[in-house]
Write a structure and sequence with these properties.
CATH class of the largest domain: Mainly Beta
Order of helices and strands: EHEHEEEEEEEHE
Strand order of the largest sheet: 3-6-9-8
Number of domains: 2
CATH architecture of the largest domain: Sandwich
Oligomer: single chain
Helix content: 10-25%
Distance between the termini: 39 Å
Shape: globular
Strand content: 35-45%
Largest sheet: 4 strands, antiparallel
Number of strands: 10
Radius of gyration: 17 Å
Length: about 150
Amino acid sequence: MGGSAFLTEFGGCEGSSSCDDQLESGMYHADIFLQSWTFWGNSYSSMDLIKRLSRAYARAIAGVPISMTYYPNKRIFNLHYYANKTINEPTEIYVPFLHYPQANYTIIVNQHLKWKVDPTDANTILVEPSEYFMNSSLEIVVGTVEIF
């Protein structure tokens, strides 16, 4: 049948160091398991909380994900996936303005990929197969993206 999972109702304990630890742990482990999530609590009242909840992430992957991590204290995002050049849509990575104002970031991709900023959304990076990959006999390779 198929379906998906969604982590709900974590958080909601603003204002304590144990809450901070819970929040960081929840988002870190959600990354490890490539898990979607939503925060439970009053996030609109605190810009600090909004900034903590705002993260770079891949919202569409042109292939099969291997790993995705975001380290907020260092502003480092990593994505590894089996890139498939037969997929005609790009990988889309959301880059939050709160962490990367005025496109203040560096992007590194491996030789199999190329990237550009989405012309319709400055907070979205589009990653596509490179000419090297398209001209190779390989159909699927490991693609890597790092944003910092």
